[in-house]
Amino acid sequence: MDKIAVVILNYNGRAFLEQFLPTVIAHSAEAKIIVADNASTDDSLSYLKSEFPTISVIVNESNGGFSKGYNDALKKVEAEYYVLLNSDIEVTENWIQPCIQLLESDSSIVAVQPKVLSFQKKSHFEHAGAAGGYLDKDFYPFCQGRIFESTEEDKGQYNVSHEVFWATGACLFIRAEKYHEVGGLDEDFFAHMEEIDLCWRLKARGNKIYYCADAHIYHVGGGTLSYQNPRKTYLNFRNSLYMLTKNYDGILLFKLIKRLLLDGMAAALFLVKFQFRHFLAVFNAHVTYYKKLTHFLKKRKAEKNSKRSPLTIGLYTKSIVFGHFLFGKKTFGDLDKKDFKA
Question: Is the distance from CB of 237 to CB of 267 less than 8 angstroms?
Answer without folding.
Answer: no
